[in-house]
Specification:
By secondary structure, the protein is an alpha+beta fold. It has one domain: Orthogonal Bundle (Arc Repressor Mutant, subunit A), CATH 1.10.10. Helix content is 34%, strand content 18%. It has 4 helices and 6 strands. The strands form 2 sheets. Strands 1-3-2 form a 3-stranded antiparallel beta sheet. It has a 3-stranded mixed beta sheet with strand order 5-4-6, with no helix packed on it. Helix 1 packs across helix 2. The longest helix is centred in the N-terminal third of the chain and has 13 residues. The radius of gyration is 16 Å and the shape is globular.
């Protein structure tokens, strides 16, 4: 992996307060090393690691993605009860979910208008609002 990608990954991990283990550095480099935002599943990141000849187990990928989310470096976007995507873009923004290809992409933030959201139950606060717009091609 390029030195700049590893340095970007190390800096990113430091921002999250995470120790830069070999596995974390490898996965972080794949996720943000080139400065581009990504939407990945654990399985797609596992496949990316295999192509890059990084030796990590699928369980390690799941645990590492969870650690990245817990550290505030990524957001988990749940598309349905069984499918999670992990997003490196941290600002509030909506998503398109393309049902025919099971791909998650960013939707134009400037075109979304939310007039209001329900009040949070007593003793709680809204941490974030996820907007996922499901798309399919007409039949």
């Amino acid at each position: 992996m390029a030195t700049s990608a590893i340095q970007n990954a190390a800096d990113w991990l430091e921002r999250g307060g995470l120790r830069p283990t070999r596995q974390r550095l490898a996965l972080a480099s794949l996720l943000i090393g080139d400065g581009e935002d990504r939407h990945v599943t654990a399985e797609s990141l596992f496949d990316m690691a295999a192509v890059a000849e990084e030796k990590v187990s699928l369980a390690t990928v799941y645990n590492t993605l969870r650690a990245f989310c817990d550290a505030g470096l990524m957001n988990e976007v749940v598309v349905d009860g069984s499918k999670s995507y992990f997003d490196t873009r941290m600002d509030d923004h909506p998503h398109f979910f393309w049902e025919d290809s099971a791909v998650l992409t960013d939707a134009p933030k400037e075109e979304l208008e939310l007039a209001r959201i329900p009040k949070a139950p007593e003793g709680t606060e809204v941490s974030r609002v996820d907007v996922v717009i499901r798309l399919r091609r007409p039949r």
